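Work Package 4 report. The design task specified in the project plan requires that, given a folded chain encoded as structure tokens, an amino acid be chosen for each position. We show below one input record used in the internal validation round.
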């Protein structure tokens, strides 16, 4: 069968995905297309190239950024950004793996989808990739004066400095590289900041010429768009190419019979003497389908639950604070398994190794508990059947999964058609075979291709790196003649001029977009019905969930006094991780994994629309297939009514785990930490969030760890008090997402749970929830880091602003136009955010992996002037409105719809209020941009500043008299 120059390789109906899937090969170029036809309206396209680097200069990563900076048909500076501004995209990004680069897009609107595909195809095959783009996105030397100082700048350069500021990221990268010393996986495809400046423009352009060709391309389509249109679309692009030979195959890493040991330093603060260690084993090829699924189950058996034997042995050893390592890595040609401990004394690394090997030997020799095996099989099978990709399109998850075999010239459907290999594993287990014990013995205990990586603290390393970089730049400057220095200054100015120059209206007009009349005028409300379970209100959402019930049982926290609020996250964990009156925490975890798709607890904080009052809830989540719904509610009843908190050692280990996790989230999520810190100073919801997720929470955990040694009785009393204050019928609201049959099945068990909840009265403590005590002046949060996260916030309602839906348009435009150009493109930061909460009136601006501090704050303060001057063309304004509507109409899976409806109910965000917001978005004009200028001028004067960063930040803070807090 042939069509549009493509030959059909195979056609299969994949019941696991409810899809008819065809693999096509283009006759002239050899390009491959995996075409998945189904009823999913959230259409996905992707093109992937094998891009194995030969060094750690980050060439593949820099090219991933650069091809999206203008192309033959779309000669604007950044078509990618124009699409982010003005499309209904449900996904639009690109990512670099160790051996491939992917360019996926998604949209539920057919015309919008076609526009996205067209722009991406032109971007990857016909990009501009000028030397200026290479310097902007990759690296360049910024020279403001011939006498210096010079500085390295570049988006990817600063992004990777941020990555290398995270000890966990370093450990993950080094663990992989240690296992693959002879092939591309032994290099850093993202780029090591020390090597990125070695990359030349000629090497960069040559990489594109070598690998970005249809003969090296794998195309992917998913959804309900016509297949013939897919083939025709690709055929038009591929007609310009002939087949070439591309040497991009990823070889196998030769197996070693000698274990390796690697010690690597990381930048640590004064007084921090903790290290991390992992043991890492090379496993089989990813395309070994049955073993692939079996290793996924084995990972669950060993590490997946709080009571899993290897996790428990590591945590209870007292040698460290939390488990380290990525677990099972299955995205590369060969899988590997990585596990260890963080927060160790580096001298104990060999003891951790010995503990891991002894635990594995005991499990292989004595056998695994049958319930642990059942729990693992059920968990993996549930995840496969649910096929829940979270906030990402389902088709994107399918594409990435297919590439784990397809990229290496294996069957792209091998891991997608999972019913047969799963049945084979079940049959082996049922026969009595010690299947998983054999995997432990063959692939872990007897496997000599193993590498141990020890990460050790090096105080002063960050400062030495900074000094070495400055010395390298000064040596380079000294080696230049005066005329060359002057030329470099001119080159710097020319790049800035180019970056500052706006695209012409003619160039912008080439970007395809939707018209306002293409947008639906009405919101699509989420079906919600008020019901009751006993005396407890239930919010029910009748949606097709493929016979899975999603439940949220929420409890009002308004009786919790301020001093106990930071304990709530650990209280939520304790419900599921400390056991009950019926069983210990190990058996409880096994039962949850055997009977459900997962259960946990977290917090929900919000501000109500209009009244601006705080909403605070403990949310207990659960999901199960309809036949297991009674068991789900039985477990829920057990943990809510019978949870035990009296195991001191267990809770102490949880505190250390939580503290370690909070410390290690600082570098990769610095923008979130800064946002939380700023919001805490303005309203109760912000304060609640920061003391349970931010720097204040970390301080609380450190104090709690010390308190555990001296005042366990007091801690236990606090946990017991929280049970009485929180788990009450009068403060309970249930949320259920399922179809009518699921709702019928859940009604009885839900009513039984509601009836069993205690109904003790409790005094309100909301008056204690206020931002007093949170620093209000500018503050610097200092840690060992090579980049900064620069934030500023202001209460716009306090400055006189009254909400109008146009704010959604204005602030999205600010983020994707003004801040993007000034903070990212010109400033070199990896990203910038501009978030407005229409309930509280709080605006927060924050940068991500930013080399600057003062310059970024100046950009924030220049927002008012920009708004006074800006005058969008009718096309630009329409695109801005389309983009804002895209945010309002973002595609959600059924469970996400149910959760969103719950949040909206609690926050008072009614369908009528949302429709008014939509109407106002659609009516936005240039006058609305200018109307916000005076408010933003007030924000510049009165806003609060918080910055997370390293030594450079500390110097700025000292010069400006900011409050300094060392957080790590």
């Amino acid at each position: 069968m042939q069509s549009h120059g493509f030959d059909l390789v195979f056609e299969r109906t994949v019941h696991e995905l409810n899809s008819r899937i065809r693999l096509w090969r283009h006759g002239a170029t050899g390009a491959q297309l995996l075409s998945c036809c189904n009823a999913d309206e959230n259409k996905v396209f992707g093109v992937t190239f094998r891009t194995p680097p030969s060094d750690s200069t980050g060439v593949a990563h820099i090219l991933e950024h650069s091809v999206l900076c203008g192309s033959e048909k779309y000669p604007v500076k950044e078509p990618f950004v124009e699409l982010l501004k003005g499309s209904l995209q449900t996904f639009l990004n690109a990512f670099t793996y160790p051996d491939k680069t992917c360019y996926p897009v998604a949209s539920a609107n057919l015309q919008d989808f076609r526009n996205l595909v067209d722009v991406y195809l032109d971007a990857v095959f016909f990009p501009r990739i000028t030397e200026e783009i290479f310097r902007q996105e990759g690296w360049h030397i910024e020279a403001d004066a011939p006498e210096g100082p010079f500085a390295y700048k570049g988006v990817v350069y600063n992004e990777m400095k941020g990555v290398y500021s995270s000890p966990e990221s370093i450990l993950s990268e080094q663990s992989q590289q240690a296992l693959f010393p002879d092939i591309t996986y032994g290099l850093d495809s993202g780029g090591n900041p020390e090597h990125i400046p070695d990359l030349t423009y000629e090497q960069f352009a040559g990489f594109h010429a070598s690998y970005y060709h249809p003969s090296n391309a794998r195309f992917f389509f998913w959804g309900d768009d016509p297949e013939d249109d897919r083939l025709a679309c690709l055929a038009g692009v591929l007609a310009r190419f002939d087949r070439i030979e591309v040497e991009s195959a990823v070889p196998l890493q030769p197996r070693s019979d000698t274990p390796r040991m690697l010690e690597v330093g990381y930048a640590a603060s004064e007084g921090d003497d903790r290290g991390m260690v992992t043991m890492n084993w090379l496993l089989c090829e990813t395309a070994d389908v049955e073993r692939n699924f079996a290793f996924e189950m084995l990972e669950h058996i060993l590490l997946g639950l709080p009571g899993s034997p290897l996790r428990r042995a590591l945590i209870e050893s007292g040698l460290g604070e939390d488990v380290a390592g990525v677990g099972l890595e299955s995205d590369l040609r060969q899988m590997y398994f990585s596990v260890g401990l963080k927060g160790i004394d580096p001298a104990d690394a060999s003891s951790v190794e010995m503990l891991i090997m002894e635990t594995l030997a005991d499990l292989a020799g004595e056998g695994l508990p049958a319930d642990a095996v059942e729990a693992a099989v059920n968990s993996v099978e549930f995840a496969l059947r649910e096929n829940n990709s979270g906030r990402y399109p389902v088709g994107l998850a399918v594409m990435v999964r297919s590439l784990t075999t397809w990229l290496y010239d294996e069957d792209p459907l091998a891991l997608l058609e999972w019913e047969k290999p799963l049945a084979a594993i079940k049959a082996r287990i049922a026969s009595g075979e010690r299947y998983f014990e054999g995997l432990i013995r063959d692939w872990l205990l007897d496997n000599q291709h193993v590498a141990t990586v020890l990460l050790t603290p090096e105080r002063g390393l960050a400062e030495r790196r900074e000094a070495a970089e400055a010395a390298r730049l000064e040596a380079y400057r000294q080696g230049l003649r005066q005329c060359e220095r002057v030329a470099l200054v001119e080159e710097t100015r020319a790049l800035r001029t180019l970056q500052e120059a706006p695209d012409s209206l003619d160039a912008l007009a080439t970007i395809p977009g939707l018209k306002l009349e293409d947008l639906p005028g009405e919101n699509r409300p989420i079906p919600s019905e008020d019901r009751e379970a006993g005396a407890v209100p239930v919010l029910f959402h009748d949606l097709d969930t493929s016979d899975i019930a999603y439940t949220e049982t929420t409890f009002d926290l308004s009786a919790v006094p301020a001093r106990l609020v930071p304990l709530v996250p650990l209280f939520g964990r304790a419900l599921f991780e400390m056991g009950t009156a019926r069983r210990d925490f190990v058996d409880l975890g096994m039962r949850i994994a055997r009977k459900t798709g997962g259960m946990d607890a977290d917090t929900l904080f919000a501000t109500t629309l209009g009244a601006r009052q705080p909403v605070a809830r403990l949310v207990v989540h659960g999901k199960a297939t309809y036949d297991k719904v009674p068991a789900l509610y039985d477990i829920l009843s057990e943990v809510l009514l019978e949870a035990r908190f009296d195991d001191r050692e267990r809770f102490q280990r949880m505190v250390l785990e939580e503290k370690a996790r909070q410390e290690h989230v600082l570098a990769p999520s610095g923008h979130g930490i800064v946002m939380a810190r700023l919001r805490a100073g303005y309203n109760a919801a912000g304060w609640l969030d920061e003391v349970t997720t931010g720097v204040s929470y970390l301080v609380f955990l450190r104090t709690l760890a010390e308190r555990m040694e001296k005042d366990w009785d007091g801690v236990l009393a606090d946990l017991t008090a929280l049970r009485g204050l929180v788990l009450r019928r009068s403060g309970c609201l249930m949320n259920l997402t399922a179809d009518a049959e699921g709702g019928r099945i859940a009604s009885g068990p839900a009513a039984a749970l509601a009836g069993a909840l205690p109904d003790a009265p409790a005094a309100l403590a909301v008056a204690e929830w206020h931002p007093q005590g949170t620093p209000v002046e500018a503050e610097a949060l200092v840690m060992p880091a090579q980049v900064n996260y620069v934030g500023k916030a202001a209460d716009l309602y306090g400055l006189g602003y009254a909400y109008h839906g146009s704010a959604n348009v204005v602030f999205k435009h600010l983020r994707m136009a003004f801040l993007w150009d000034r903070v990212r493109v010109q400033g070199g930061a990896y990203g910038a955010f501009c978030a407005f909460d229409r309930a509280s009136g709080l605006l927060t601006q924050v940068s991500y992996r930013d080399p600057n501090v003062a310059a970024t704050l100046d950009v924030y303060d220049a927002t008012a002037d920009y708004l006074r001057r800006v005058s969008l063309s009718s096309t630009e304004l329409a695109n801005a409105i389309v983009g804002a509507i895209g945010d309002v109409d973002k595609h959600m899976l059924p469970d996400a719809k149910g959760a969103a409806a719950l949040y909206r109910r609690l926050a008072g965000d009614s369908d009528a209020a949302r429709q008014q917001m939509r109407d106002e978005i659609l009516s936005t004009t240039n006058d609305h941009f200018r109307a916000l200028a005076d408010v933003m001028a007030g924000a510049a004067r009165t806003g609060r500043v918080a910055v997370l960063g390293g030594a450079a930040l500390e110097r700025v803070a000292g010069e400006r008299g900011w409050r300094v807090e060392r957080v790590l």
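Residues 806-825 form the longest helix (20 residues). Validation will be extended to a larger panel in the next phase.
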